Amino acid sequence: MTMDIDIIIDHNQLDYDHFVNYFKEKGFDINRSDLEALDDQLHGSIFEKNTMFRIDLKGVYSKNEQDSIKHALLVNFNDVEVYFDNPNQIIVHKLKFGSEQDLENAFAVYFRSQELINHDLLATFAASLGVAKELEEFLVNAEHYKSEL
């Protein structure tokens, strides 16, 4: 569904040179300036050579990123423990950005993560990001799509 992974990283504790060298060894196109953008509360991108895949990095700049970390889910992925954003957070972030692709992704996350969906948490996250009305519309449409399946 997507060609990127978004990662929230505590850049203040990151050894930029080590990080850059590690990803270069793994076949990614990255420069120190990609990470230095985090110092200005921007995002940086790392591109896998010869593909369209990229890793988008952002720092912990606000309560929003702090909440994402607080509610993250620890998952064993290929024998590595990794924290993944809570599906409730993902859906609300997708609603906030609001592109057609974001909405498609939000529906995919919603339907694939039914056992993890917490409607109270969704409403709380949506209110905090100012997208309560968008969530209400999204849930009506989700019920409509579900009834068609």
Question: Keyphrases for this structure?
Answer:
149 residues; 2 domains; alpha+beta; 18% strand
Runs with pLDDT <50, length 5+?
Answer: none
Largest sheet: 4 strands, mixed
What does the average pLDDT come to?
90
Beta strand count: 6
Shape: globular
Structure, described:
With 149 residues, the protein is of the alpha+beta class. The chain folds into 2 domains: 1-61; 73-149, no CATH class. It is 50% helix and 18% strand. The protein is built from 7 helices and 6 strands. The strands form 2 sheets. Strands 1-4-3-2 form a 4-stranded mixed sheet. A two-stranded antiparallel sheet has the order 5-6. Helix 4 (87-97) runs antiparallel to helix 5 (100-112), helix 4 packs parallel to helix 6 and helix 6 crosses helix 7 (132-148). It starts with a strand and ends with a helix. The model has no long low-confidence stretch (mean pLDDT 90).
